[in-house]
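Page 42, continued from yesterday. The earlier attempt failed because a stray header line got pasted into the input along with the sequence. Redoing it now with the clean sequence only.
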Amino acid sequence: MFSGLENVLEVGCADAWGSRIVNQEVGNLTVTDFDPVFIQDVENRMNSEWPMKTIIHDLLAGPVPAG
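This time it went through. C-alpha cells are written below.
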C-alpha cells in the first residue's frame, strides 16, 4: 500500500514490528507512540540498514510536530 512513497508516518507504532516491513518499501519512515518504553525499545532494536525516525507523541495532545 505504501510502496514507493517518500515519507510515511505511523501513529501508534507500539513495538514497530510491522514497521520494519513498511520501512523496506518507503523512502523515510517516522514512527510515533505515546509510550516512551515502546519508543526506547524500537530504538534499541533498530537495524542500521533500515533506519527510521522515532517520536514520543500523544496524538490526543495535538498534531505531530512538523519535520
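Notes: The mean pLDDT is 93.
Reminder to self: strip header lines before submitting.
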